[in-house]
């Protein structure tokens, strides 16, 4: 079974900002700052009441952004996210009902896994890129190195516990296409409207080298 591959999106930048927005206005400003810094893929987590409306506003008002929905935990959130303008979907985990529903989605999906068994089940469904979550807590770089042997065709976008101090070790792995992270959109900067700081952090992250997409 062949499903939409998110790799062509992930090739745009080594880091996918994982953001939680409290208002539509802040979400649009944040998206502009991230795009200006060279990180066009933006995962807006469905953790706040403003999330879906923010996705819609970003899709309409920030044309260079590639906005997607994260924390997709239920099948009913799939169509709602796509209707809002999501161009990709991300889940923290993938129980059977959600897995089946995501496999029918018309946009690229990065379903979450934490073990070899979960990764194998998702690979069998045809998902080419998986989200390892929470990456650091479940084994991080050593786990991803171990998975590369028995699962050589799988690619990962690890998220959770990744920041400036360890991002390079993840991106150096050939089975990593990108990483997800929130450090490029710190809550303290957003709360005071310091979007210049967001742009500066995004610029630094956008220049990170990665093994999966050599220059």
Radius of gyration: 16 Å
Oligomeric state of the chains present here: single chain
List the helices and strands in order. HEHEHEHEHEEHEHHEHEHH
Number of helices: 11
Shape: globular
Terminal CA distance reads 31 Å
According to CATH, what is the topology?
Answer: TIM Barrel
Describe this structure in words.
By secondary structure, the chain is α/β, with parallel strands linked by helices. The protein has one domain (7-205): Alpha-Beta Barrel (TIM Barrel), CATH 3.20.20.70. It has eleven helices and nine strands. β4 (89-90), α5 and β5 form a beta-alpha-beta unit. α2 (24-36) crosses α3 (51-61). The longest helix is centred in the first third of the chain and has 13 residues, at 24-36. The chain is globular.
